[in-house]
Amino acid sequence: MSVNPFKIEPCSLIMVASTLPVLDFLKGPVWTLQTFFQLSGRALANIFRSPRYGSDIALQMDIIGVGSLPLALLPGLFTGAVITLQMARALNQYGASGQVGQIVAITLVRELGPVLTAILVAGRNASGMASELGSMKVTEQIDAMRALGTDPIQKLVTPRLIATAAMLPMLTIISDFMGLVGGYIVGCVMLSLTSGPQFWSSAYQALDYSDIAQGLIKPLVFALVIALVGCHYGMSTTGGAQGVGLATTRAVVVSSVWIIVITFFIGKFFVDFN
Amino acid sequence: MAAPTNGSGRDVLLKFERVTVRYDETTALDAVDFEMRRGDTCVILGAAGSGKTVLLKTALGLIQPDEGRVWLFGRNSQQVEADELRDLRGRLGILFQEGGLFDSLNIEENVGYPLANQKSLRCPADEILPRVEEALKFVELAHTLAKVPSELSGGMRRRVGIARAIVTQPELLLYDSPTAGLDPITATTIMALIAKERDIRHTTTALVTHRFQDGQLLANYRYNAKTGRLESIKPAGPDEEGYTRFLVMKQGTIVFEGSQTELEAASDSYVAKFGKRMAD
User: Fold this and answer.
1) Is ipTM > 0.90 here?
2) Which of A94, A255, B122, B252 could bridge across to B30 with cysteines, CB 3.0–4.6 Å?
């Protein structure tokens, strides 16, 4: 018999759904949403409560931040390079090849840098969290933790949440910079579209504070999505190895989809705000 | 707060009152009533999926019942604050079916985990290692301090689980299928350790098992500290300390409660299946 660690009173929508057979299909998604928000609320509230597991946070920062560094470096470099490559012909047609730095900077800092880095980090870390916590769940380690006086959300979820929120913006900054380097290599060294100083100057001039804010708020929100979705599916795992595999797949798919959906809404907010 | 006593004058450490636990369409526990008094040994038998593990996890407060009340050391475990529930759990020891050892910690850290994390135990940091060594020595695994669980065999992991359960010297010990998946020799070793712990520290013990021999051993043998061996004894009566009570579960309900003799004489075909095997 599987044990749900989030067992709580059913919410009114589930009760309504259970009384109307036609709404039965809603019970699963509503239940998942309810347990997700309950976990999220507790994990966020635990940030301000003791005990604080500093060594666990540092360990997770190392795993998520340092471990994901290659994901920020290489894809960032080639994203900037490919943007420049594809834009070169169009810019030449309009005699605007000197603006290549501006295009690369805006595209990367506002959108592609945060989204691509987050999706890659989700693939690596949301899956890692779901599989690690899922394995702990099915081998009763989470039950043991609760029985031995530790809140598993405080010990396992909150450190991952803090570590992801701290590391993803940094990885995004690194990825953005590598993208600009990639753009510089293709635009200035390979295609000679513009000079180096002009490339960097136009890139710098193109960005205003709202772009920087957007480029930093997005990874922060994506970090919450990655950590909470990964941990949610891990903590909800049932069954054996198959359940762990399913939780891992769901964590990656759901977090990646939400990253793409959320980037639209944050982008829309900044467009309206500007 | 002192636990209430019943007619026998011994504290009631654990009491279930019409406890029901449901999962979607499945009823895992159905209006279960039972109690454990200090010094009792309770053997819970039943087929797979009959609700034995859910019963133990509900006793621990890991599962909240949908109906009914669970009294742990005289406190209603559904109505106490989270901190108090953690304190109550500090008076319990549990061995999980899967062992529940933390993969990322070594054996010393695993066994010392409750001492380091149960605030109510107030164990000074310098006392943790000696107590861990003592518990590991009890299960004859003193040499495994620096190993990690994956380096140990299934039986050794189960023994480490016992060491972690007893390191806090709990008043009530819950064992969830401690011999499941082990060979008969290792299983007997594990059961001998459980009997030894019960008889040396007089710990109230609940044992969930599907191996009939396990209950038989607890009911008919006592550990003699002088000889260091298990000795055959005459089973204690219902109102005597050391009484071993048998419960048989079927589809979330307790369908039998009584002594070994009563179990062996049961006429119900499901219950008799356990009793007859015990009598063999």
Assistant:
1) no
2) B252
Give domain status of residue A36, yes or no.
no
Interface of A with B in 96-135 (CB under 8 A): 135
Residue A27 within any structural domain of the chain: no
Token pair 């993208």 in the structure block, residue: A179
Please state the domain count of chain A: 1
Q: Which of A2-6, A59-63, B130-134 has the lowest mean pLDDT?
A: A2-6
Query: B173 and B166 in contact (C-beta within 8 Å)?
Result: yes
**What is the spatial distance between Cα B77 and Cα B84, in angstroms, rounded to a whole number?**
9
CATH hierarchy code of domain B12-91+171-279: 3.40.50.300
A150 in B contact zone (CB under 8 Å): yes
CA-wise closest residue to A126 among A5, A2, A225, A26: A225
Interface touch A140/B97, C-beta < 8 Å: yes
Q: Could you tell me if B49 lies within 8 Å of chain A, comparing CB atoms?
A: yes
Q: CA gyration radius for chain A?
A: 22
Q: pLDDT per residue over B70-117, tens digit each?
A: 999 999 988 888 888 888 888 899 999 878 899 999 999 999 999 998
In a domain, A72, yes or no: yes
Is the Cβ of A47 closer than 8 Å to some Cβ of chain B? no
Q: Does A174 reside within a domain?
A: yes
Q: Read off the pTM.
A: 0.84
- Whether A143 and chain B come into contact, CB under 8 Å, resolves to yes
Give the tokens for residue B200.
């040396």
- What is the per-residue pLDDT across A146-199, written as a single tens digit (0 to 9) for each? 998 889 999 999 999 999 999 999 999 999 999 999 999 999 999 888 898 999
